[in-house]
Design brief:
The complex is a heterodimer of chains A (about 290) and B (about 325). Chain A is an all-alpha fold. Chain A has helices at about 10-45, 50-55, 65-75, 75-105, 115-125, 130-140, 150-170, 175-185, 190-220, 220-225, 235-245, 250-270, 270-280. Chain A folds into 2 domains: about 10-65, no CATH class; about 70-285, MetI-like fold (Orthogonal Bundle), CATH 1.10.3720.10. Chain A is about 75% helix and about 0% strand. In chain A, helix 4 (about 75-105) runs parallel beside helix 7 and helix 9 (about 190-220) packs across helix 13 (about 270-280). Chain A is globular. With about 325 residues, chain B is mostly helical. Chain B has 2 domains: about 10-45; about 75-310, MetI-like fold (Orthogonal Bundle), CATH 1.10.3720.10. In chain B, about 70% of the residues lie in helices and about 0% in strands. Chain B contains 14 helices and 2 strands. In chain B, strands 1-2 form a two-stranded antiparallel ribbon. In chain B, helix 4 (about 85-115) packs parallel to helix 8 and helix 4 crosses helix 9 (about 190-200). The relative contact order of chain B is 0.11. Classes of the chains: A mainly alpha (about 290), B mainly alpha (about 325). The interface between A and B is large, with 104 and 106 residues.
């Protein structure tokens, strides 16, 4: 195929100028994606005096004082800990809940399973505003407003449908021979699940854990609706309050913002392939 | 498969084998439901149950906590001549149009260019994806800084002598705020689309591109005649998700402008939230949620009908 010359002559040169144009356009797009983050980092390193002189550019005399001040005045010690609790509990719970559900839907041939899968596809698009009001009054009745477990249960529910679909298709791609052999050998479903399926499904569970961690770390709507006391606020909500207090001190709020995104950013950069495959899994079709 | 089944207890008489198999099947059935139980329980308590009860509450006068009084379709009748709701609905339509065009175009451009280059594809993909992982509150604060009237990007351009950049306000202006918030939301979204479209493009048959080349067609024809048809199912699915997500957009509006200034960025999602949690008219807010959900169900049904009529989407 490649031996056939493209019909137009001189196209090798044409192709290479074309490549330059493509790279230039891709760099412009990369600039749009990254420049705002660069400004965030630059400003976090400026004193307010320097910010006044140089609001968007590279700092001439980088200072790290904003980070210490933001950490102390924003009570990040408390809110980072809260966010870690919410996100880890969510990741773990979603893995258990969705892992079991996906195992059932891919292996145990439950009657009505297809109906449930259809509901999962539909259910992902149910907007939170459709159920938040009765949910709030239900949580008032259960005394789950402003409680850690109250928010974590909500996260389990909203992140498990996508995770179940993702894990189900992952499990369908795994070989079944080992499981069948284990059942024939007299192992019950629980033993088969723990000894055979779990180790095989671990990479899929890892993706689900990472994605649930990231989504609950960044989550905003339910956190601001269901958590009220400062002692229980996750980083996103405490950052919003912090920004309200230090409205135009951009150096300080930039440092505070970096504290919020840094843990997830590091995790993302380390494990980007898994993140990207998990986060885009639901959007691909055909 | 068959040989493995026989490697089990072979000595059993056939009648007993079927009996054990039946019992085993029944126990598998039970195990199946047990495994689904945690999922079904949390889903019903948090999502399905409250969603269904919203349909009932939309027919009531209810403050959100106390008893609800049934009033029939009154809430829906009120919605049709509620100026705030109609205005919010208009903003939602503008918002939806923005998200059906700008991020889709940026996503298609980025992914098509990426599919044409040989080196650096993974690096660009990573850079474009990073904004999607940034928490919305931080993203919003970043752009408030960049669009700041006195010290943001426009003030800097004004200092450099660029005409028309003097004293530009984005989030504080009734004319610009909606576009400003849409841009911030788009900034964290378009790179995600690049990655999704690129993955879809990678499964398009390479020979179709070669055929266009042999025909003497340029890049534009490759894009129009091969890429777009090749990724159509993903593209249509994304457009559908865009509409459904836009109907009740909330996060960025609530964080940046709370619907202001002067209601110029009020969306049905934010109006619903305020109506329920600040004005305590939960029944009326439920009617807004039901209206928007019925709209998205209609759109979904339209899509399914097209699919069933044999559209390849």
């Amino acid at each position: 195929m490649s031996a056939i010359m493209p019909p137009r002559t001189g196209s090798a040169k044409k192709r290479s100028t074309e490549q330059y144009i493509f790279y230039a356009a891709l760099l412009v797009l990369a600039f749009i994606a990254v420049a705002p983050l660069a400004v965030l980092v630059f400003n976090s390193l400026k004193t307010s005096v320097e910010f006044g002189r140089n609001p968007l550019g590279i700092p001439t005399n980088p200072q790290f004082g904003n980070f210490r001040e933001a950490w102390n005045r924003g009570d990040y010690q408390i809110s980072i800990r809260n966010s870690l609790i919410y996100s880890l509990a969510t990741a773990l719970g979603v893995c258990v809940i969705s892992g079991l559900a996906a195992y059932s839907l891919s292996r145990l041939n439950v009657r009505g399973g297809n109906l449930l899968i259809a509901y999962l596809f539909m259910g992902i698009t149910i907007p939170p505003q459709l159920y938040v009001i009765p949910l709030f009054s239900l949580w008032v009745r259960f005394d789950l407003i402003d409680s850690r477990i109250g928010l974590i249960i909500i996260y389990w529910a909203i992140f498990s449908p996508f995770a179940t679909l993702l894990l189900r298709s992952y499990m369908l791609s795994l070989p079944r021979e080992l499981e069948d052999a284990s059942r024939v050998d007299g192992a019950n479903e629980l033993q088969t699940l723990l000894r055979i399926v779990l180790p095989l499904a671990l990479p899929g569970l890892m993706v689900v854990a990472l994605v649930s961690f990231l989504m609950s770390w960044n989550e905003f709507f339910f956190a601001i609706t269901f958590i009220q006391s400062d002692a229980l606020k996750p980083v996103t909500i405490s950052f919003l309050a912090f920004q309200g207090r230090f409205d135009t001190n951009w150096g300080l709020t930039s440092a505070a913002g970096i504290i919020v995104i840094l843990p997830v950013m590091l995790l993302f950069l380390l494990l980007q392939r898994r993140f990207i495959s998990g986060l885009t899994a639901g959007a691909l079709k055909g | 498969m068959a040989s493995m089944l026989q490697s089990g207890p072979v000595a059993m008489p056939s009648a007993r084998v079927t009996e054990t198999r039946r019992r085993r099947l029944r126990s598998r059935h039970l195990a199946g439901w047990l495994c689904l139980l945690p999922f079904l329980a949390v889903n019903f308590i948090v999502i399905l149950g409250p969603s269904l009860s919203t349909f009932y509450y939309s027919l009531t006068d209810w403050n959100g906590i106390g008893p609800a009084t049934y009033i029939g379709l009154q809430n829906f009748r009120d919605l049709t001549h509620d100026h705030n709701f109609v205005e919010a609905f208009r903003h939602v339509i503008i918002w939806t149009c923005f998200f059906l065009t700008v991020p889709i175009a940026m996503g298609l451009l980025g992914s098509f260019l990426l599919s044409q280059i040989t080196r650096g594809q993974m690096l660009f993909r990573l850079l474009y994806f990073i904004p999607y992982t940034i928490a919305s509150v931080v993203n919003a604060s970043m752009w408030k800084n960049i669009f700041d009237t006195r010290r943001g990007i426009f003030a800097q351009l004004d200092n450099l002598g660029v005409p028309g950049m003097d004293n530009i306000s984005i989030f504080g202006s009734t004319r610009n705020a909606l576009w400003g918030v849409a841009w911030v939301d788009n900034w964290h979204w378009w790179g995600f689309l690049v990655v999704v479209f690129l993955a879809a493009m990678q499964s398009v048959d390479q020979e179709l591109y070669d055929a266009v080349k042999l025909d003497g067609g340029g890049r534009w024809r490759e894009f129009r005649d091969v890429t777009i048809p090749g990724i159509l199912p993903t593209l249509v699915f994304i457009l559908l998700l865009t509409i459904i997500a836009s109907l009740l957009v909330f996060d960025y509006i609530y964080i940046i402008t709370q619907g202001g200034p002067a209601g110029s960025t009020e969306m049905v999602g934010t109006l619903l939230y305020k109506t329920a949690f600040e004005m305590f008219e939960a029944g009326y807010a439920a009617a807004m949620g039901v209206t928007m959900t019925l709209l998205s169900v209609l759109i979904m049904l339209g899509y399914r009908t097209l699919q069933r009529r044999g559209w390849e989407v």
